Please model this.
Amino acid sequence: MSNEKTFVNNLFGTIGLPQDQYASIKEDSKSENEETVVNVDKENEEIDPIKWIESEFYIPELMAPLVLYPYQKAALREAYRTDSEGNYLYSLVIWGDIKKSAKSTIAAAVALERARRTPYGSFRIAANSKDQADSRVSYYLRRAISLNPRLNQTVRTKLYNVLLPNHCFIQSVPLNPKTVAGGNDDMVSFSELWAADNNLAQECWTELTLSPTKYGKSQRWVDTYAGYHDVSILLERLYLQGREGYLVETDIPGLELYANPETQILMLWNTQPRLPWQTTKYYAQEAGVLTETEFNRIHRNQWASSVSEFVPEAWWTGCIQPVPEPKKFDCIAIGVDAAVKGDCFAIVGVSKHGDLIVPRFVKIWTPPKHGKINFNNKDNPYDENYPQGYLRTLIRDNNVVIVGYDPYQLHSMMTELENENLSWFYEFGQVKERLEADKQLYDFIAHRKVANPENSDLTNHILNADAEMQGEKHLRIVKRSESSKVDAAVAFSMATYLAVENIPD
Model:
């Protein structure tokens, strides 16, 4: 079988083009493609890669080619550097930059620029999921092709894949060892490597290693910002290797561009705003919706601990304020977090007054040493010394519209109460909903949208809490230590979330 036929057959299996369709595309553009390949070879000699990007890689914001800024050009020139034999000095380029610095756009531009002068090349764009791979680098690459009046006539796109006239193929792939193994790639691009935090990602990184047959002619390219210590293990290891190198001399003051000849790593690690749209007003807005840790991670490219203080004591103290007097028919949302032993059983009920959340009821049960919490008094179902009796009494005496609970320990108890039609009982999701609820409570405390009832139990649980970051806009309330109790904070979080969703203004 000829090399061309082998390539075509492999291409069918990858992007699913029918053979007759490929044959038609090939026939229609045969003469044009042959001429284009010659032109590409000519471009290789005459057009500087950075000039090509600034003349051919289109973006919709300008409806014209991308404009690179001085620090970006300095880093790109170093990334493209070759030795006397024409081999790249760096086999791995880590493009670490703050959010909204066009790092994914630049990765796409580099991939397309290199592909246009790599006949029969193989390029892969990998990310933590197929959607993520396509939504950033690959999407920007295809978008640039569609906007460029010259390229959109000669470059073919199919779903997540691109076929250039010189038969170079660009494919988007998720980080899955089954789909990425066995490549012989000229370039592999990884997007947002900070989120590759599991063994599967490490396996994929290994499978996507560069082939010895293309040593010096191939590169791996990572675009990302900082991750979490001891969580973003793959990126952190590469980052530390990059930092072991020396600072490359450039004309850009303070540019953190590291070269490590021993590992052939070039690492840009920019930590400051350098672009005209990265304004003081933009960062003031972002500081209002992100935790300090997350703000510094994505907007200053600083490594973060995955666990930090939930809220400063001053924030919680600042929430002490006059609150409306309770009324008999105020709508109440209740959150319940429970443990049989070790942790506490907490019930928190809140009311809503405009934008203000007011804790009205806080009750905590602590298990005896080496003992367990009993949920109810079988002889008196309304005995308030027991969690079930206290909850029954709250529902009986107040306008309770919803009770949210963690079903892990409470399914049986809540099912019994639900069967009595006492109120609306809601199994509170402990993944997506908890992350949203805990971040919402953080925001509400930061902006004094909750009232501190000066309840010592609730205060202790709030101040015992740490926040485990889950991406840019989610967090989970966790215990600072094994002896710390945070159950009332968790119940408060659930109750607040349910009040916002279910109690009208």
Q: What stands out?
A: The first helix runs from residue 3 to 15. Residues 1-45 have pLDDT under 50 and may be disordered.
